[in-house]
Amino acid sequence: MTPTKNILWLIDGLGMGGAERLMVPYLRHLDTRQFTPRVCALQERDGNPVAEQIRQLGVPVDLLPIPHLRSPGGLPRLLRYLHRHQIDLVHTQLEFANTLGTLAARAQRIPAVCTLHTFDNLAEDSRAARRIRLMWWALRHFSRRIIAVSEKIRQYHVQTARFDPAKVVTLYNGIDLSRFRQPPGTIRAELGIPPDAPLLLTVAVLRQPKGIQYMLEALPAVLTAAPQARYLVVGDGDYAQPLRQAARQHNVADRVIFTGARHDVPQLLAASDLFVLPTLLDALPTVLIEAMAAGKPIVASRVGGIPEIVSDGRNGLLIPPAQPDKLARACIQLLQDRELSQAMGRTGREMAGQMFDIRRQAQRLGEIYLESLA
Residue 1's pLDDT band (boundaries 50, 70, 90)? Predict the structure, then answer.
């Protein structure tokens, strides 16, 4: 019997971001007849809560604290770690791990694969831009395969980072569809939401680029059309306090519920009527796929890879980013037209099954590993 290959998933941290949460379903469905996975985080993010979810799968998780690229002894420590665990392939995620992990794999003469989850912004401060260019250089020269989570991300990096097009493949995020087919349960009662109140839901890390401030600005118009509506904001982040302040500023604080981070997103989706993501830029938000799998109509910004998920008029409505009036009109249309909303929800569920089933995506990831190992 051919021995399995030891695959290291190396990531910056294991907080509640999309890239981190996405590791759980992939690791659950990775072919253990061929691969033995291990996860290593280089930093601690909000207590690394995803680490426990991964451990529950029987996958070992390590913390190898390396604060930054210039940390004394950081690279040698990672090299010793790779040698100690006899790693056959390194799969890196996020900027810091992409750079350090790819360089370490090269030094150990083992193949490296990376996943790009975001659009890298060179317009930030010069230090951040230098880090991104260094990551691009490392990936361009030393990574066997570069996985983009959307075709838009793939095209962006081929053009901007000058990656070899033959080396960059698109692999859409996958989810476990069965988790999102369940009854609403008692979520509404727990959160004090009337059973017949229209419920709009956003699940996101609370950062300014997620655009939730524009939904809060749009909410007064939505409440004029649907006076009993509630807006549920699920997630945490450094923009939480400004968002609470914005809710008070627009006089909608009594209709907005900030829950903080939660682990029952399937139940929250089941209890909602409409999923809203007013983001300003996103590569391929996994939460939109989850909303589709739950059979919910979507209102989202026409940015990044979102049009690859949401087909305007079929499973949701796409609106320009940062335009509260158009955001409000789209939400009102779907709240008032129940037949259209239900039809979009059914279409979204079918699309999720065709495009984003984690079993197929994990199988394709395994094929990428084998190609890289060969």
Answer: low
Sign of CA dihedral 127, 128, 133, 134: positive
Q: Are 357 and 171 in contact (CB under 8 A)?
A: no
Question: Which residues, including other chains, have CB under 8 Å from residue 72's CB and lie 6 or more apart?
Answer: none
pLDDT tens digits, 12-66: 999 888 889 889 999 999 999 999 999 999 999 888 999 999 999 999 999 999 9
Which residues sit opposite 275 in a β-bridge?
201, 298
Cβ neighbours of 91 (radius 10 Å): 27
Residue 99 CA to residue 115 CA, distance in Å, equals 12
> Would you list the DSSP string of 156-204?
HHHHHS---GGGEEE----B-GGGG----TTHHHHHT--TTS-EEEEE-
HSE of 178, CA atoms in CB hemisphere, 13 A? 3
- Domains in the chain, CATH or no CATH each: 5-174+358-373 (3.40.50.2000), 177-355 (3.40.50.2000)
CB-based contact 49:13 (threshold 8 Å): no
At residue 294's C-alpha, the angle toward residues 291 and 300, to 5°, is 20
Which pair of structure tokens corresponds to residue 227? 């006076």
The total of other beta-carbon atoms located within 10 Å of residue 214's CB is 24
Distant-in-sequence contacts of 45-48, Cβ < 8 A, 24+ apart: 45/12, 45/13, 45/14, 45/15, 45/17, 45/20, 46/13, 46/15, 46/16, 46/236, 47/15, 48/13, 48/14, 48/15
- Strand pairing report for 168-170 and 199-203: unpaired
Residue 372 is predicted with a pLDDT of 96
What pLDDT is recorded for position 132?
A: 93
